[in-house]
């Protein structure tokens, strides 16, 4: 098995792959051409040091992934739509960048909506149920069930949209390509298509782990008043994310263990909602993205933490 591991995400009509020092996004444009854009990842010495600190590093890795993901989504949308005259965009097109203010505004709104829906809403619902409960443990169990139901319901609902289903197919292509590479298999369509679309480092599994970790931490707080309960859920998000990241990292490193696979099976099962079986053309795009990253890497043993 390859020592080098890579991660990425599905974008609109394409896939983004990243390594330790480079990133590549491959998108199929309206003419059918695969447009590949590569970029060197530059991190400050402080961020490099913080990225090695257990529990703290998860927050920084996730933040980097969020910012990079937003930029590549914008790029892929512009390439997939194509210019007004119908011609293909050049690989180094500058027409695909969001204004800095717009990007940060989009990230802020997205984070606010996610926190509001998945962390605050369950607490507001519990405010109606808590007066009927005497057990703080039961209260937190119900809150966890509500939170997990919202997450799964959201994933299931958006998967019904044709455009999102295609993104989920590219997500499957991303996983298959990385699994094939990590197994040392040839990077061609026939070889890659044989691999599973489930990957232990997937962000979907990370979300499930976040819910489980949050249950343990929040249960320790009992049944605080409404405002304190909301504040605790929001303020503890970085800690929950840091712990969940370390769990994902550990389980990915020990995925060969039957015990680890059994423990992670619920999170892996949820990937059935966010991945779909890709077709050959989508696998081609994922392969193009990974090959571009492999060509651009300047380190022998890059390690990337989330797929």
Which features does this protein show?
alpha+beta, 11 helices, disordered C terminus
Write a compact overview of the structure shown.
It contains 11 helices and 4 strands; from the N terminus they run ββββααααααααααα. It is an alpha+beta fold and 307 residues long. The protein has one domain.
Q: What share of the residues lie within helices?
A: 55-70%
Please give the largest β-sheet.
4 strands, antiparallel
Percentage of β-strand residues: 5-15%
What count of helical segments does DSSP give? 11
3D structure, described in words:
It contains eleven helices and four strands. It has one domain. It is globular and about 60 Å long. The longest helix has 30 residues. It is of the alpha+beta class. Helix content is 61%, strand content 8%. A four-stranded antiparallel β-sheet has the order 1-2-3-4.
How are the elements arranged and paired?
Layout: E1 7-11, E2 14-18, E3 22-28, E4 34-40, H1 45-50, H2 56-81, H3 100-129, H4 136-158, H5 162-182, H6 189-192, H7 203-219, H8 226-235, H9 237-253, H10 258-274, H11 280-296
Antiparallel strand pairs: 1-2, 2-3, 3-4
Helix pairs in contact: 2-3, 2-9, 3-4, 3-8, 4-7, 5-11, 7-9, 7-10
